[in-house]
Amino acid sequence: MSRIAEARVIATCPGRNFITLKVVTEDGLHGLGDATLNGREMAVFSYLNDHVIPTLIGRDAARIEDTWQYLYRGAYWRRGPVTMTAIGAVDTALWDLKAKAAGMPLYQLLGGRSRDGVLCYGHANGEDVAATVEEVGRYLKLGYKAVRAQCGVPGLPSTYGVSKDKMFYEPAGAAVPEENVWSSEKYLNSVPELFSALRKEYGFTPHLLHDVHHRLTPIEAGRLGKALEPYALFWMEDPTPAENQESFRLIRSHTTTPLAVGEIFNAIWDCKDLIENQLIDYIRCTVTHAGGITHLRQIAALAALHQVRTGCHGATDLSPVSMGAALHFDLSVPNFGIQEYMRHTPETDAVFPRAWRFDNGYLHPGEAPGHGVDINEALAAEHPYRPASLPVNRLEDGTLWHW
Ligand code: GCO
Ligand code: MG
After folding, report:
1. pLDDT of 256-310, one tens digit each?
2. What are the counts of helices (DSSP H) followed by strands (DSSP E) for the chain?
3. Which ligand 1 atom lies nearest to the CA of residue 314?
4. Bridge-partner residues for 235, per DSSP?
5. Pairing relation of β-strands 18-25 and 339-340?
6. Burial readout 256-294 (b: 16 or more C-beta within 10 A, e: otherwise)
7. Angle, helices 64-72/292-305, rounded to nearest 10 degrees
């Protein structure tokens, strides 16, 4: 393998914004990394262009670990979503390159398969319980073994996670955030009814998941987890903001519903206390936002010591490049749990040709050398970047609430 000759950052918006890092070696191979930080895309674009790419040119592309250490340990400013997303993009691109140079699918370099396929969950949502039950049924017919269910809350004009476009849900909209109304009381009263209806209709074989999006206080989360116990959820996600991680002890002391956290974490230091104290069951960090394959493997190794399993974030705010890399990680890592899978639009799939595929509830990374996802730059250029933001939340009295 040779030296890095060139690296460039590509911004494209085939339905939503994606930032992609392309690293090219002197012998003409290229590797790709996803650098999409949802709603803050241009911060990483600049970080890569202004601070990272100048240090990559001429570097030995084979030295993945040393490059990671250089960008993390060598920098005065450590951690944080912008830095770690930039490092993650470089790391993923270098793993892609190394596997291409070896002529192997990436999972082979990561130790080979630990399983035959990657269990994934889809997103079902509806305005009310009946519509959500129907939507979950649609996923089960498509072959999904696991489905996340989100439902409109009676008495609230709209609910985050519940969309009109069921197949290609994209929550980022206006350039300046829209405002949603939230009520934890109304929400808490409505969720158990949804899962009761789902178990009544479909029994206990399908895995069911639910995302709280950080909206509850710890004691409210304990109450919800307890109320959901009869419906045996695969997990309850992000029940409360995870800054004060001690608060998870309170949730844990009230419920055996498994807990999943980590989609907005960016370093092992965010995960350490929750994992070491066994306060969660699934860790949801991604290759994109948590420092690439190199760092995610470290997080997974720590998690394995404590019987915490992985459940990588896989919303459409991560590009197909992220999914490609995640699937090689998922296939190889011993303590894999589940992979989130939200379909991208056909426009996005056209910009990012890929080797991975969905088959009967499982994802497969494919056998192409590298992570198996490429970018059609000419097509990408036809979809220029446009600012888009996630909505913010206010309580019914106007108080600003957690995202
Ligand atoms: C998830 C996430 C999504 C977020 C999205 C933000 O679990 O997939 O919480 O639902 O809305 O990633 O852009
Ligand atoms: Mg989530």
Report:
1. 999 999 999 999 999 999 999 999 999 999 999 999 999 999 999 999 999 999 9
2. 14, 16
3. 8
4. 209
5. unpaired
6. ebbbbbbbbbbbbebbeebbeeebbbbbbbbbbbbbbbb
7. 90
Query: Rounded to 10 degrees, what is the CA torsion of 99, 35, 374, 61?
Result: -30
Pairing between β-strand 146-151 and β-strand 259-261 as defined by DSSP bridges: unpaired
Residue 215 Cα, ligand 2 centroid: separation in angstroms?
11
Mutate to test the pocket of ligand 1, among 283, 317, 403 (most ligand atoms within 8 A of CB): 317
CA distance 271 to 245: 9
Closest CA to 379 of 320, 326, 327: 320
Token digits of residue 65: 């670990």
Q: How many CA atoms lie within 13 A of 342 on its CB side?
A: 23
Could you identify the atom of ligand 1 that is nearest to the CA of residue 340? 8
For 98-129, the pLDDT digits (tens) are 999 999 999 999 999 999 999 999 999 999 99
Query: CA-CA distance, 221 to 235, in Å (whole number)?
Result: 13
Q: Give every CB contact of residue 73 below 8 A, 6+ residues apart in sequence.
A: none
User: 3-class SS at 236?
Assistant: strand
Q: Which residues line ligand 1 (CB under 6 A)?
A: 38, 161, 171, 211, 213, 263, 313, 315, 317, 340, 390
- Residues with catalytic function: 160, 213
Residue 314 Cα to ligand 1 midpoint, Å, equals 8
Q: Give residue 169's pLDDT band: very low, low, confident or very high (50, 70, 90).
A: low
- Confidence label for 229 from pLDDT (cuts 50, 70 and 90): very high
Note the pLDDT tens digit of each residue in 143-154.
Answer: 999 999 999 999
What is the distance between the alpha carbons of residues 17 and 384, in angstroms, rounded to a whole number?
9
Cα separation, 41 vs 214, in Å, equals 22
pLDDT in tens, 314-334: 999 999 999 999 999 999 999
Which amino acid is it at 123?
H
Query: Residue 205 pLDDT more than 70?
Result: yes
Six token digits for residue 110: 């990561």
Neighbours of ion ligand 2 (CB under 5 A): 211, 263
Query: What is the token pair recorded at 168?
Result: 């290609």
Q: How close is the Cα of 241 to the center of ligand 1, in Å?
A: 14
